[in-house]
Write a structure and sequence with these properties.
mainly alpha, Rhopdopsin 7-helix transmembrane proteins, 9 helices, 85% helix, GPCR_Rhodpsn_7TM
Length: 253
């Protein structure tokens, strides 16, 4: 099935009224959940009185939270208005505005998850060099690169249209990123397992050595918990994209 035939077959076809109302309700609900939740995360990090949360890792968390906050402030309200106008049969929002906001913010969110994965990878694989490899300043530059890539890549949408660019988005921002992140997480878990087992087998004679080993094991277990939490977030994120990606591939092939 060609892109032209798909695009042509959709001209003048509107969604059923009940579907537009359902999408409007879901978009409004997401706005009410996304904005307060991510606002609290941003507030907690920025207003931390002891500056204990101002680390490269928490800065990347802040970057992701701010991206998702923009989703709640911009994309979800645009989606709400668009689908409401669709249900009422009036033209209030250009669909291209909804498309481009979706592509830019979704790409930025996925790449931000990738940045968090890189942070965990360096923390586990190169713990002694972590501070030299990842500083707050470098994380700021990384966040800027993420936004430049997200905006630049999404501009291709205006060249190829929604159907074909959706295929590009699904194959790059979603699928390839997921495969890369999955590989990194597997590497992290294998490294953590080996380090914990190695430290557990050590039987140092001195009390001081035992204390050092206990601290190392405790630190590794903490890293494992953080990494597992990020894996759950990543899997939930991918599961949310899976239905759309399946439809995109069906439309293009």
């Amino acid at each position: 099935m060609s892109n032209d035939s798909v695009s042509g077959s959709c001209v003048g076809v509107s969604a059923p009224r009940y579907l537009s109302i359902l999408t409007t309700t879901v978009s409004l609900g997401l706005t009410l959940v996304t904005v307060p939740g991510n606002s609290l995360i941003c507030y907690a990090i920025l207003k931390d009185p002891f500056h204990e949360l101002r680390t490269p890792f928490t800065f990347l968390i802040l970057s992701l939270a701010m991206t998702d906050l923009l989703v709640g402030i911009l994309m979800d309200p645009i989606s709400t208005v668009f689908h409401l106008s669709e249900a009422l049969k009036i033209d209030l929002v250009d669909i291209r505005v909804l498309h481009i906001s979706y592509f830019i913010l979704s790409t930025a969110s996925i790449l931000s998850l990738g940045a968090l994965t890189i942070d965990r990878y360096v923390a586990v694989i190169y713990p002694l060099k972590y501070k030299s490899y990842l500083s707050t300043k470098k994380c700021i530059y990384l966040s800027l690169v993420i936004w430049l890539v997200s905006i630049g890549l999404s501009m291709v949408y205006f060249k190829f249209g929604y159907i074909f660019y959706s295929l590009i988005f699904a194959s790059t921002a979603v699928l390839l990123t997921f495969l890369v992140l999955l590989f990194v997480y597997v590497s992290i878990f294998n490294r953590l397992r080996k380090q914990v087992r190695s430290l557990s087998r050590q039987r140092a004679s001195s009390t001081q050595a035992n204390r050092v080993n206990k601290k190392k094991i405790s630190s590794l277990k903490w890293e494992a918990k953080v990494t597992k939490a990020l894996v759950l977030v990543l899997l939930a994120y991918i599961l949310c994209f899976a239905p759309a990606c399946i439809i995109i591939y069906v439309l293009n092939f």
